[in-house]
Amino acid sequence: MYERKARYERRRAHERKRNLMILVSGFCLALTFAFLFGSFLSKAETRESDTVYYKYYTNIEIQAGDTLWDLAAEYMGDQYESRTAYVAEVCQINGLANTDDIVSGEYLVMPYYSAEYK
What we know:
This protein is of the alpha+beta class. Helices cover 57% and strands 14% of the residues. It is rod-shaped, with a radius of gyration of 33 Å.
């Protein structure tokens, strides 16, 4: 009778060990699939924006009739969220308190982006 109980206990221990191995294997398999699937998604996202843009600055001479808003339309590109954000940066760079503080014949530093590395 004792031998029968010992066999039963060994069999139960073997089943628990097997169930644990199945659980661990399933977890590892799920983790592997999640990693592979996640890496495919991240590659798809990076392919959309393969172009790298570099930020540069240029000096321009203000001409009669120029406004910061017109100059912003010419220089800002798609990297800024709005023309207002671009004009605010130009004012900060040039120490302008007001957008009307530009005078014909003076110079402004204008930021711009380019995909070409210079």
